[in-house]
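Chain A, query sequence.
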Amino acid sequence: MSEFEAHSNDAPARSTTARFLWQQLPYVVALLLAIVGVAYTNVSHQPLTGYWEFLALAIGVVCVVTKWPEIEGKEGQIRLIWTQALHWIAVLITMNIMLVSGVQQLLPTPATGLVLLTLLALGTFLAGLSLLSLQIAFLGLAMGAAVPAISWLKQSIFFFLLGAVLLIGLAISFWWRQDGSPSQSAARDITSQRED
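Chain A, predicted structure.
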């Protein structure tokens, strides 16, 4: 096979991979935005109401845009828009119920971000099921899995820090116990070899 033919066979494979990655980009961006929102809420101790509403609307738009080419006829497209609009309006109303001051007093601020992410994950998963979209359903599952992961990481980060301090302390204590002079340790090694 000539070098030209080898390069021409690689080009379709690269273009298929690039197309696949381009198609998955909206889902990856939505997941990253959700995790960034929870991280910012945990650090700033303020719920990002507008951010979560924007993210819910953005995911709703992703749902419509990704399913639009598969829908035939104007009636099906209008049904897609209306069903997704009603679905995401319900998710937004539920999110705003969690932000009412009476409910807000029951939850600490970092928990509010996790609750909003949970609602967004549930809305995304249900949208994926209703649209029969594996990618959207997986995005909802991934956002839902991020909730306990973030909570666990936040609780266990102190244990990680303590473990790192312990390891650094042990490494420093072993380093200080050594004489530091390679000639003495080499002399000890030579002496022990002669005795054997």
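The CA atoms of residues 47 and 187 lie 65 Å apart. Residues 3-157 form one domain.
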